[in-house]
Prior knowledge:
Blueprint: E1 3-6, H1 10-22, E2 30-33, H2 37-47, E3 50-51, H3 55-61, E4 64-67, H4 74-85, E5 92-94, H5 101-106, E6 116-120, E7 130-136, H6 142-153, E8 156-160, H7 166-174, H8 176-193, H9 198-218, H10 224-231, H11 237-247, H12 250-269
Parallel strand pairs: 1-2, 1-4, 2-3, 4-5, 5-6, 7-8
Antiparallel strand pairs: 6-7
Helix pairs in contact: 3-4, 7-12, 8-9
GO biological process, one term: L-proline biosynthetic process
Catalytic activity: L-proline + NADP(+) = (S)-1-pyrroline-5-carboxylate + NADPH + 2 H(+); L-proline + NAD(+) = (S)-1-pyrroline-5-carboxylate + NADH + 2 H(+)
Keywords: Amino-acid biosynthesis, Cytoplasm, NADP, Oxidoreductase, Proline biosynthesis
Amino acid sequence: MKIGFIGAGNMAQAIIKGLVASETVTGDAIYLTTSTVEHSQEVAGQLGVHALASNEELAKTVDYLILAVKPGVIPTVLTDLSAILSTKDLPIISIAAGLTLADLANLVPTNPQQKFIRVMPNMNVTVRMGVSAITANTFVEEQETFTAQTIFDAVGSTYLIAEKDFRNFTSLAGCSPAYTYLFIDAMSRAGVKNGLPKALATKIATEAVMGSAALLSATEDETPWDLIDKVCSPGGTTVAGLVSLEEDAFTATVIRALDATIKRDEEMTK
Ligand SMILES: NC(=O)C1=CN([C@@H]2O[C@H](COP(=O)(O)OP(=O)(O)OC[C@H]3O[C@@H](n4cnc5c(N)ncnc54)[C@H](O)[C@@H]3O)[C@@H](O)[C@H]2O)C=CC1
Ligand SMILES: O=C(O)[C@@H]1CCC=N1
């Protein structure tokens, strides 16, 4: 199976690295294009995959096509592929935020039965701990959805969800690595304020967050609040910090931030 990536920036590179590391496909089965041939060759060389000269050539070559360009670039890319898509049965996977299956279908008027699969991954695919949502239009066969799932299972976990839940999923998984890094960095700055070197403080905060997530993930029937209670010694240090966080509306602030991502996704769809 040959997989093609149109666009090879943050996300495509993360997926390719994870896919190759998982040995689901070899670098030899992966093809990419970027905005210039020189850049494509440079990135492909770094990743050990093939660069092709144009998006048209890529679409002719591969069995599955992954659109990994910014959402605003997708209309141009699909218009350029219109002729090929009218003759070739080529499932297209889009990872773009804010573009629905219906939006994508409207961009390929030459093939009213064009197969589109929508995936919302996150950056953690780089270390094969991504969380990806998958949905497909009615023209996609079960086996093809399964193949898309296999690609993203190789770089983390996948959830087949209804398209109506994509925005919610994007806020919880697609965007949240950025918020988690912000939290880690904030803790690390506190460490610096109180005398530790930045690199050491960041390493400690990162490992603390990683271990906390691993513990929560490993517990079968405990909620985050059950674990919070276990960390808070009566009259101790943690509860003092917890009260301070909630005085500053930590939970409400996070919910407001995720609501903002959903609102932005809605705006991008219009
Ligand atoms: N960055 C993230 O954490 C996530 C991003 N996404 C989605 O992934 C997509 C890509 O995002 P990033 O990788 O962050 O963007 P990026 O800006 O890092 O990469 C975009 C790539 O597209 C290439 N490109 C631009 N025009 C092109 C054209 N006409 N033909 C071929 N290649 C072209 C650029 O050279 C670059 O390699 C977006 O649609 C975004 O919504 C989805 C989930 C997470
Ligand atoms: O910021 C964005 O729009 C993309 C989608 C999810 C993560 N990054």
